[in-house]
Amino acid sequence: MAMGVRAMLCVLITVLAACSADRETPVGSELIDDILGSEPGIVSVDTLDITSDVVFTYTTLIDNSTRVYLGRDSLYEHAVVLRPDFSTAGVDTARTVVKAEVRIVFKDDGDLLDDDLSVIFYELGTEYSEGDSVATLDTLGVIVDPTNGASLRQMTQATARYEVPPALAQAWIRGDSASNGISIVYQGIGEQIMRFASRSETVGTMQFIVNFVSGFQTEYPIGHDGTFTRERTTTPNHVVSDGVVRRLFVQTDLSQISDSSAIHNARLTLHVVPGSIVGVSRSLILYVPDSTDPLSESFLSGVDVTSVDASDDTEVLDFRVTLTLLGMLRGLVDDNGFVVRYASENTELRRVEFYTSAAAVDSLRPRIFVTSSTPATFDP
Amino acid sequence: MCARSILLAAVMVVVAAGSAGAQSVFNLSLFGQRMESGDVRAVALGGPVQLVADSLGVSQFNPALIAYAKRVTFGANVYSSLDINKSAEGNDKEGSLRFSSLTFAFRGISRRLTLAVGYRARFDPSGGFSTTKVSAADEEYREVFERSGGLLSFPFSAAVDLGSRAKVGGFVSLETGRITNRWETSFTTLRNIDAFSDQERTMSGTGWGLGVEVSLAENLSLGATYEGEITYDTDIVETHTNASNDRTATEDGLLPERWTASLRWTISQRVTAYAGGAYSDMTKVRGMAFPVDRLHDETRVSLGFEVLRVMGSLPVRLSSSWEEFPYTLPDAAVVTRIAGTIGTGWNFRRGAGKLDVALQFVRTGSIGSNGLQNRSVRLYVGIGGAETWSHRRQRR
After folding, report:
1. Which member of A175, A182, A283, B50 has the greatest number of CB atoms within 10 A?
2. What is the C-alpha separation between B269 and B309, in angstroms, rounded?
3. Is the alpha carbon torsion for A352, A358, A364, A366 positive or negative?
4. A26 touching chain B per CB within 8 A
5. Contact B252, B259 (CB under 8 A)
6. How far apart are the first and last CA of chain B?
7. DSSP assignments along B237-293, one per residue
8. A324 CB near a chain B CB, below 8 Å?
9. Euclidean distance between the first and the last CA atom of chain A, given in angstroms as a whole number
10. How many whole angstroms separate alpha carbon B268 and alpha carbon B266?
């Protein structure tokens, strides 16, 4: 008898083992509209209107390089900014300046240079300290060549000295006039770049050399220097760039998302203007700023969301913002919009252009696409 | 032997409790599909509507029949099912195991009084399906529906043996159950977040019923049962991925009364015929968010034969049953269930223990009429045992 019981159990277990449940079946879905008693949620893809898309420019000098440079390339114009350090003037303040010169050390880095560069020296109206963010060159006036009174000077492809009016140097040393610094601005029309040793170079840096009455000479160091860069042309598109640091600020109205929806996926889509990607290290990051005021310091920091890499043939950049959007809807992340910037700033020249929300072709405008579903209905 | 049988019953319970799976596609509607909760010998002879005189058959639906048990008796029954569901969308195969009933009966204060307590499965709502879809953003996802749980009954029964002419019984029961419905939107790519909506209906109520067996002649008996309507208090809890949609509610559910009528005719010393039927006006069902206009009467008719000593000392049991489901699909098309069953059983220890088996072949619905059909094979196994309490005490 016990044998019979065992046999039955074996049959039972064998039947079960042979019949593993397979959940991948649509059989039964026919009941949804008839007698199932519930209905699934509806999946939809909604497009959130961009309520604001603006580029903010943060023109920060590239200051860590061993070079400062001057001239023009296909994208930008570059000017040298420098400020002598007169903190060690001491007894020089009682002396009379006879001659003052800026000694600039040329560096041949293989740049294509057709000729000497025509430049103008300007006195800066605002004190420049290394690393400052400088939106525009605030100049007080031209520093003419005291030997001939000319504004325009020629910078040669060699280490050279460029004179500054003794009275101006005297005023800086004595503190009669603020020593904000000097900018050297290229005046030519050709695309040429000339590079010089910056204060970060170990040997052969720039100097401000002053000769006083009675044969005294002091070589003042250049305490601060950098390269000021600005865009050559304007574009109706949004530019995110380095060199001239620009960030794109995008905002949307989250009330466009239904309160009852479950978010499956959300992405910010930006269409790249063909051929606009320039430079290396093209990783772009997206973050939620701590402030909605681009002029605020806290706008520059925030919650890191994601990053994407652009290549030469990139047409569309998709930034996945699913979890961040969920966090915003639940109040865990501030609804401050999104900022797109280069992962590295103030290191290289690079840029990319995106179509704006005013683009003529609607499909090229920036969008936030949200895939969501309504909750299932159990009592339809 | 009795101790061994109890151990075996315990093993079966454990195995059954650890197994679950979808069965018929028709489990997905209403409360689920009514389960064949009862003695496997009765199942082999046509199901719970039959009237089987068996002192070890304490799991039968008619409470009057526990009066046959004069000793401490138990019965445990399980079934394993292989279901093949089919629709225009395709077909699937599901295996499952169900523990359908467990009953302990013992003598009351009088030899004529038998009491019983047990567990009986009422409805099985287990099932599910999934469909693959593509969003407007060209992302593939699956809509998955899963239903699980069940309705259970814990009856406390009493039966009085009024002699060879009649037996009457009744029960009161604690009715409970939980049915969980889940919708899941599941994307195939990891960068998407899945969403779900769960609804859990926890049901509780009380039930009662009466049963009677009357012998009209030495070889002819009639039986009938009445089970009163059950009003369920239902607590509904819904939870969603977006918690703002969560809700709780209460609802009254109603399972209408049910009548059965049975006939047992001993044709000869070796052959007994069984006939029975059941009826319930299921249009009175309320709750379960089921469309009322789709409800229908539930009827069942069964016919069975038992022939003794066909295979040596073993009997052969044959039956067929016809059943109409309590809803129409689609619109006015009635869903029918037709089952054919064959079974046998072993008595051992001079009738103090038994093992019954039955193999049932079922066809439910049809593609042509209902758009859905189910073909299933079920293997039922039931055991029973009895022990004279006083005898056991003396042995100790």
Report:
1. B50
2. 10
3. positive
4. yes
5. no
6. 16
7. EEEESSGGG-EEEEEEEEE--EEEEEEEEE-SSSEEEEEEEEEE-GGG-B-TT--GG
8. no
9. 55
10. 6
Class of CATH domain A43-58+244-373: mainly beta
Q: Is B91 in contact with A27 (Cβ distance < 8 A)? A: yes
> pLDDT averaged over consecutive 10-residue blocks of chain B (396 residues)?
46 42 81 89 95 94 94 94 91 86 91 94 92 91 94 96 94 96 90 93 96 96 97 96 93 95 96 97 90 93 96 93 95 94 93 94 95 95 85 44
Yes or no, beta carbons of A30 and B96 under 8 Å apart: no
Q: How many CB atoms lie within 10 A of CB B312?
A: 5
A369 contacts in chain B (CB < 8 Å): 137
DSSP A314-330: --EEEEE-HHHHHHHHT
Interface residue A99 vs chain B (CB under 8 A): no
Residue A217: Cβ-neighbour burial (10 angstroms; 0-12, 13-18, 19+): exposed
Interchain proximity A264–B187, CB inside 8 Å = yes
d(CA B8, CA A375): 46
Q: Are A238 and A53 in contact (CB under 8 A)?
A: yes
> In Å, how far is B392's CA from the nearest CA of chain A?
22
Give A25's contacts in chain B (Cβ within 8 Å).
Answer: 85, 90-92, 129-130
CB neighbours of A115 closer than 8 A, spacing ≥ 6?
A190, A192
Burial of A170 (0-12, 13-18, 19+ CB in 10 A): buried
Architecture of domain B2-395: Beta Barrel (2.40)
Task: Answer yes or no: do A38 and B294 touch at CB < 8 A.
Answer: no
Contact across the interface for A35 and B290, Cβ inside 8 Å: yes
B contacts of A375 (beta carbons < 8 Å): 197, 240-242, 245
Q: Does A23 touch chain B (CB under 8 A)?
A: yes
Chain A window 36-65: which residues touch B at a Cβ cutoff of 8 Å? 36-38, 40-41, 43-45
CA distance B47 to B227: 16
- Angle between helix axes A2-18 and B2-17 (nearest 10 degrees) is 0
Classify each residue of B348-382 as buried b or exposed e, where b means 16 or more C-beta atoms within 10 Å of its C-beta: beeebbbbbbbebebebbeeeebbbbbbbebbbbb
Tokens at residue B186, please? Answer: 């599941």
Cis peptide before B330 (omega within 30 of 0): yes
Q: How far is A303 from chain B (nearest CA, A)?
A: 19
Cβ–Cβ gap B294/A34 under 8 Å: yes
Q: What gap in Å lies between CA B381 and CA B63, rounded to an integer?
A: 21
Residue type at B313?
A: S
Q: Using the beta-carbon criterion (under 8 Å), do A25 and B195 form an inter-chain contact?
A: no
User: Could you tell me if B355 lies within 8 Å of chain A, comparing CB atoms?
Assistant: yes
Amino acid making up residue A315: E
**Which token pair is A196?**
């010089």
Q: Give the model confidence (pLDDT) of A47-106 as tens digits.
A: 998 999 999 887 655 556 788 889 988 778 889 999 999 999 999 999 999 999 999 999
Q: Which of B93, B191, B355 minimises the CB distance to A19?
A: B93
